[in-house]
Amino acid sequence: MKIVLDTRTALIAAAAAATLGLAACNNPSDDALEQQADATEQASDAAADALESQGMEASADAVEATGEAKADAIEDKADAVREAN
Fold first, then answer.
1. What are the extents of the domains in the chain?
2. What is the pTM assigned to this prediction?
3. Is the dihedral angle over the CA atoms 75, 79, 84, 85 positive or is it negative?
4. Beta carbons within 8 Å of 26's beta carbon, 6+ residues apart
5. Can you list the alpha helix ranges (DSSP code H) found in the chain?
6. CA atoms within 13 A on the CB side of 74
7. What mean pLDDT is predicted for residues 68-77?
8. CB 53 within 8 A of CB 10
9. CA torsion angle 73 7 9 46 (round to 10)
10. How many CB atoms are located within 10 Å of the residue 49 CB?
11. Is residue 26's pLDDT more than 90?
């Protein structure tokens, strides 16, 4: 079975993974935020890989860049939590 994803579906999948990471984050510690950042980046990488396998290079690059930006923002938040403690 071949899975077909368009850009919108890939972005929704990445956003859903990020949202699940937020919902699972009951502890505001930097470790939990780092794990969330990793999950966000992994989800966007997976979505980008799926798009790339379908020859949608530009869309894959956009999804990957968006995921990296979100992960970086979460890591910045983790750094702020770490510094506050």
1. 28-84
2. 0.65
3. positive
4. 32
5. 7-24, 30-53, 57-84
6. 24
7. 94
8. no
9. -60
10. 15
11. no
